[in-house]
């Protein structure tokens, strides 16, 4: 017999194959052990809860370290409320529990907890003398008004941590009730740099584009095909119904796929709506749902015209390249070699990595593109303390001299406002050439602007 005194006082259980990682299904054979001094018996339900917590502790120990963790710790020193948002399954709950391990965790997806928070918010908050991690708080926006008064009264920095998978309801409530009290971090799926630090980086570009960065694909034995299929089904069936009145879910799924086919392109709502059999007004509404739930993002055109007439439409990008690839029907990484969307997917990957870099540091995205009516274009423009930095993105693995033409034209237009431009491509070598920084795809994490 073996007594797990460290976790379960007064309980003895058989040693099984779960000696390293116990599971609740091994409760057969559990013997209640009544301590001779305290006459205490731990109920089996409480034991199950302890097992679940222990399993989570094992998960924390093996999780891929997140670059946003120091940002959360920094913000917790100066704000009473920390908000952590991002797409479903990006690792928000795991990260929040890891960084704020001393706080009670409560999920407002739980009907009982949500009902308690709605019916008696004051008593709900009083349960947590040391603050709490409140997960999926967008499910109970009414709680935010009570939270404002509560944190003002307590005056404790890093008191409450709010997480959510949708930014619209949550962010709207925060703007109205918690302004000035919130430190905010947006967590996207794993970055290439985070994977590299965990020795899980890809040696092949196609594999990186095919798999994307959702943590589940790196800590479970599940294929991208199986995981993305269920992710989309869950997203459409669960989240979309909560966010917007969609009568035909299959039509919405078609809309999501058509958006994937346009990742890296200028957004044309009329064309997008026509291809899906919906009006441009509906297309705009549905796109706002995808954007609010971190499926897509819009890159706005930079406002400086340099004497040129600029396009006004934003560019559409998916936040995770693996999800975009799956929606395009790509079921094997090798298919990317000849796929027509490979260039657009690579551009999606690079833009996503640049966004993660900024968001993990708690900074605004501040990414733009530049394009005039004559077709002169720069894929990404970043505002830095030294000036405007332009970045061109090419998926080819062998450098071609004409790749720099757009950047050279940009430098002429921008003049003294242009900081040294860069180019990232599908090869592996990084070097300086013709006054440019040329970065291999595995060195995207090095493309940081001087303000970092």
Chain-wise SSE layout:
Layout: E1 2-3, E2 11-13, E3 31-32, H1 44-62, H2 69-75, E4 81-85, H3 92-99, E5 104-107, H4 111-119, H5 121-126, E6 132-135, H6 143-154, E7 160-164, H7 168-177, E8 182-186, H8 192-197, H9 205-211, H10 216-219, H11 224-243, H12 249-261, E9 265-266, H13 269-276, H14 280-292, E10 296-301, E11 315-318, H15 321-327, H16 342-360, E12 367-371, E13 377-384, E14 387-394, H17 405-414, E15 418-425, E16 431-433, E17 436-440
Parallel strand pairs: 4-7, 4-8, 5-6, 6-7, 10-12, 14-15, 15-17
Antiparallel strand pairs: 1-2, 2-3, 9-11, 10-11, 12-13, 13-14, 16-17
Q: Can you list the strand order of the major beta sheet?
A: 9-11-10-12-13-14-15-17-16
- Distance between the first and last residues' Cα: 55 Å
Give the overall shape.
globular
Mean pLDDT: 84
Q: What fraction of the residues are assigned to beta strands by DSSP?
A: 15-25%
Task: Report on this structure.
This protein is globular. The chain has a nine-stranded mixed sheet, with helices on both faces. A five-stranded parallel sheet has the order 5-6-7-4-8, covered by helices on one side. It has three domains: 2-62, no CATH class; 69-186, P-loop containing nucleotide triphosphate hydrolases (Rossmann fold, 3-Layer(aba) Sandwich), CATH 3.40.50; 192-446, no CATH class. Helix 13 packs across helix 14 (280-292). It is built from 17 helices and 17 strands. By secondary structure, it is of the alpha/beta class.
